[in-house]
Design brief:
226 residues, 17 helices, 55% helix, 0% strand, mainly alpha
């Protein structure tokens, strides 16, 4: 945001300057970053902006100087809670724990939902499962790292990717994943690994693609089909 007042010798004399310096965080926050007491006087305005409420919570809330991460900025939590990524960061960097008020927003974003489950809850985040289930990588990671097992809601998405299908079968199911075999069969490497590590038997669907690779044809012939 360009602040034209910065280019005037005496901006305080210009129309609306004082109003902006009290009511508009985009205008006053950066110049006052190192003046915690002045920012504290403007908490009501800061609290209306998700980004500035988060920045203030992280650095200034509760004192005139930087404060421990456990400090919270309750006035700004309604604004922060409207933004998925800021809600996650507030939980991680300010609260060092759950942020229930922000969970509805977090649950709209697969990245935020996975990291909230992994880094904050250290377990399931049911509100975010629908969005994670729609993204192959996060669906697979959620199954492997959080559920340590099947994630039925995410299997359709997981099955669209050879890599996520293989890792889901190998790490989460520890068993064949028929729904993902068509995708796995598009990769010579993953077809061989699936046959050797998951099926422990030949993988007919993948043999055509394996045959295109001298390396994996040899490995498949010597380690799987013998």
């Amino acid at each position: 945001m360009m602040i034209l007042y910065d280019y005037h010798n005496q901006p305080e004399k210009l129309d609306q300057y004082q109003k902006l310096m009290w009511e508009t965080p985009e205008f006053f926050y950066t110049p006052l970053t190192w003046r915690g007491a002045e920012l504290k006087k403007r908490e009501d305005a800061i609290a209306k902006s998700p980004q500035y409420a988060f920045d203030y919570a992280k650095s200034h809330a509760g004192s005139n100087n930087a404060v421990p991460k456990s400090k919270r900025f309750e006035k700004g939590e309604d604004a922060i809670a409207t933004d998925a990524k800021l809600s996650l960061k507030y939980a991680e960097e300010v609260l060092n724990g759950p942020f229930p008020k922000g969970e509805d927003a977090i649950a709209t974003n697969a990245f935020s939902s996975f990291h909230y489950a992994n880094n904050i809850l250290h377990g399931r985040f049911e509100k975010g499962e629908a969005i994670m289930a729609s993204v192959p990588g996060y669906a697979s990671d959620y199954a492997l790292e959080i559920l340590n097992g099947r994630f039925p809601e995410g299997e359709d998405a997981i099955a669209t990717s050879a890599q996520t299908s293989y890792y889901y079968a190998m790490g989460a199911l520890r068993a064949p994943f028929p729904k993902g075999e068509d995708a796995i069969a598009t990769s010579a490497e993953l077809s061989f690994l699936y046959a050797m590590g998951v099926l422990k038997a030949p993988f007919p669907k993948g043999e055509a693609i394996i045959a295109t690779s001298s390396k994996y044809s040899h490995l498949y012939a010597t380690r799987v089909k013998t």
